[in-house]
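Team,

Forwarding the record for the chain on the shared tracking sheet. I've put the sequence and predicted structure together so nobody has to dig through attachments.
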Amino acid sequence: MNKVTPFLMFNDQLEAAIEFYTATFPDSEVRSVARTGQDGPISSAEFVVGGQLFLGYNGGSYFRFSEGVSLYVDCADQKEVDDYWDKLVKAGATPTAGGWIKDPFGLSWQIVPRRFTELIRDRNPGKVKAVMDAMMTMVKLDVAELERAYNEA
């Protein structure tokens, strides 16, 4: 186990979340689960999503996720952004803004094309501002539009 591992407290949706996450992201697996009783629901689990280890627990309605913590997905290109976005939406996720989407379990994800990160690392503050301004008008990030803003700045 890593020295620091994210621990997610679900509102009794841990099993469904694990099934969705491991089916959606490559390099994912369920490592172990503990059940309440022999045939009862999963109470806790250790699982990997996209190569990142997580611990999860069904904590009940007391626990809720907020945008204060999100999962950042580094996407190689627009196709990968579109693929993850579509899978999340199909599962019942709610798009918010600027590449953020809240999954049906309440966890926020940032679906970000690598090109966006490259563009905002430019040394020209005018170009960076143009890209950031364009991003703020988007729900799902659009590489072509981000590059257009960069090139026109």
